[in-house]
């Protein structure tokens, strides 16, 4: 008995798999399934692929998940999982289609080098979790900045993105809002006490006024609070005695949002470990950040000064001799 498969969406295909054991009991085994329309599979050289569109028309926003970590000093183990979470959030919400890339070939305008490959001309926003040295030529750099600044597109950056281009591209640092300045304590992961400065902003309104969160936090340099709206900051008065925080202004931004020309930019330090990307509160933050960046929701990004209530960090106690605690990639 031959069975014709209807054209399935991914969701309906997964649902059909869930019922596979029941179907197996009710149906005789399938010996020769027929491909829809009698057409052969796509991507077979010399074979017509009518009925198998490689790039179907988009009815949702298009997001590039860009995770170029090829030159990372210490590749973060959670990068691939982070991009898969972003893809799932877009798919399950029905708000955007995600294209996951671990290279930088799509950061360009005009026709792609490879037929069917996505470029910035096709996208509404970028989720970026690249790390350290990333090889973009001068034209790609100009295209990326123009994508946000001149075309009004969205740019959401997570965790290691603060280290991108190793700080050697000043225009990117200006666009993002700052650059990596080290860790606030020895080792990598520790519990940070976080202050929610923006209970009205879409991506942070679900957080309580204060909360603790275990992550690898990044201090930031080349940062100007007057040019961004700080959404979450660390309470430096609750740093451990063996901290490495040296700023004199008591400020420790963790998450912020800003405009860059016509575009919208969001950054958060959250997202070092696998567990962070499985945290529903973190997922909701990035979901709402992407929506905001692509103009789907409004959000007040007027800069606010550091609250006068922020106390100074504790006196620094010298760390014991020997190497710091080993880094983990949980």
Description:
The chain has 330 residues and is of the alpha/beta class. It folds into 2 domains: 1-38, no CATH class; 62-293, 3-Layer(aba) Sandwich (Rossmann fold). 21% of the residues lie in helices and 18% in strands. The chain has helices spanning 10-18, 20-26, 79-93, 138-149, 170-176, 274-278, 280-293; strands spanning 61-66, 96-101, 125-128, 154-158, 179-180, 189-196, 210-216, 220-221, 229-234, 253-260, 263-268. The protein has a 9-stranded mixed sheet with strand order 2-1-3-4-11-10-9-6-7. Strands 5-8 form a two-stranded antiparallel sheet. Helix 4 links the parallel strand 3 and strand 4 (154-158). It is globular, with a radius of gyration of 23 Å. Residues 1-49 have low confidence and may be disordered.
Q: Mean of the pLDDT scores?
A: 80
Overall CATH class of the largest domain: Alpha Beta
The number of distinct structural domains comes to 2
- Biggest β-sheet description: 9 strands, mixed
Q: Count up the helices.
A: 7
Structural class: alpha/beta
Notable characteristics:
single chain; 330 residues; alpha/beta; Rossmann fold; 2 domains; globular
Topology (SSEs and partners):
Elements: H1 10-18, H2 20-26, E1 61-66, H3 79-93, E2 96-101, E3 125-128, H4 138-149, E4 154-158, H5 170-176, E5 179-180, E6 189-196, E7 210-216, E8 220-221, E9 229-234, E10 253-260, E11 263-268, H6 274-278, H7 280-293
Parallel strand pairs: 1-2, 1-3, 3-4, 4-11
Antiparallel strand pairs: 5-8, 6-7, 6-9, 9-10, 10-11
Short description:
This protein is of the alpha/beta class and 330 residues long. A nine-stranded mixed beta sheet has the order 2-1-3-4-11-10-9-6-7. Strands 5-8 form a two-stranded antiparallel sheet.
């Amino acid at each position: 008995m031959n069975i014709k498969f209807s054209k399935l969406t991914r969701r309906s295909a997964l649902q059909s798999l869930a019922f596979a054991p029941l179907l197996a009991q009710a149906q005789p085994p399938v010996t020769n399934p027929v491909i829809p329309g009698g057409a052969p599979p796509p991507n077979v050289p010399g074979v017509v692929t009518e009925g198998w569109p490689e790039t179907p028309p988009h009815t949702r926003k298009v997001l590039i998940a860009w995770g170029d970590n090829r030159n990372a000093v210490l590749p973060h183990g959670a990068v691939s999982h982070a991009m898969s979470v972003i893809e799932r959030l877009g798919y399950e919400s029905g708000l955007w289609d995600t294209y996951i890339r671990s290279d930088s070939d799509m950061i360009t305008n005009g026709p792609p080098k490879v037929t069917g490959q996505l470029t910035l001309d096709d996208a509404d926003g970028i989720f970026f979790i690249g790390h350290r040295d990333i090889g973009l030529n001068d034209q790609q750099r100009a295209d990326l900045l123009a994508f946000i600044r001149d075309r009004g597109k969205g740019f959401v950056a997570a965790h290691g993105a603060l280290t991108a281009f190793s700080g050697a591209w000043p225009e990117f640092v200006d666009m993002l809002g700052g650059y990596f300045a080290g860790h606030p304590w020895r080792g990598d992961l520790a519990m940070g006490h976080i202050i929610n400065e923006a209970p009205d902003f879409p991506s942070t309104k679900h957080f309580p006024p204060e909360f603790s969160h275990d992550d690898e936090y990044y201090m930031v340099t080349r940062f100007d609070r007057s040019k961004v709206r700080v959404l979450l900051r660390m309470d430096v008065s609750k740093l451990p005695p063996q901290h490495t925080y040296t700023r004199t202004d008591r400020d420790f931004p963790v998450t912020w949002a800003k405009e860059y020309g016509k575009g919208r930019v969001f950054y958060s330090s959250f997202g070092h470990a696998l567990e962070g990307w499985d945290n529903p509160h973190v997922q909701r933050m990035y979901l709402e950040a992407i929506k905001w960046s692509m103009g789907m929701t409004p959000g007040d990004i007027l800069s606010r000064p550091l609250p006068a209530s922020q106390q100074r960090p504790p006196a620094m106690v010298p760390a014991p001799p020997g190497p710091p605690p080993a880094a983990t990639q949980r």
